[in-house]
Specification:
The protein is an alpha+beta fold. Helix content is 25%, strand content 22%. It is globular. The structure holds adenosine monophosphate.
Length: 112
């Protein structure tokens, strides 16, 4: 079981900023920007590359939640980044699909 599943199950605390029947969003414990929120599906999918075609609507919903969180956090106008790390070279450290929503400062490109 991943740490994110424990957050879904309320076994460990998190600063939750959005929740619906399909998704949960909470603040990253190690924020890399003034706003750094993680959006996760309640369903256990390890990474975006593991999602099935049947889960494609859920993937779309997660993107909508990311945009909704950005509106809630007041960064929709200034801009923000939505990113998902997939696997080892992608820099993924928690094997439960998550979108990082980062904003409140200018983002560099390309990422290191
Ligand atoms: P990634 O490296 O893309 O897998 O991102 C995992 C993210 O989860 C990192 O940014 C961590 O800081 C964050 N993280 C790990 N444990 C927790 C936790 N208990 N609550 C909130 N964020 C966490």
């Amino acid at each position: 079981m991943t740490i994110f599943k424990k957050i879904i199950d309320r076994e460990i605390p998190a600063d939750i900023v959005y929740e619906d029947d399909l998704a949960l969003a909470f603040r990253d414990v190690s924020p890399q920007a003034p706003v750094h929120v993680l959006v996760i599906p309640k369903e256990e999918i390890a990474r975006v590359g593991d999602a099935s075609r049947e889960q494609s609507a859920l993937l779309g919903h997660l993107l909508w939640v990311a945009a909704e969180v950005a509106r809630q956090e007041g960064i929709a106008g200034s801009g923000y980044r939505v990113v998902t790390n997939n696997g080892r070279d992608g820099g993924q450290s928690v094997d439960h699909l998550h979108l990082h929503v980062l904003g409140g400062r200018p983002m560099g490109w390309p990422p290191g």
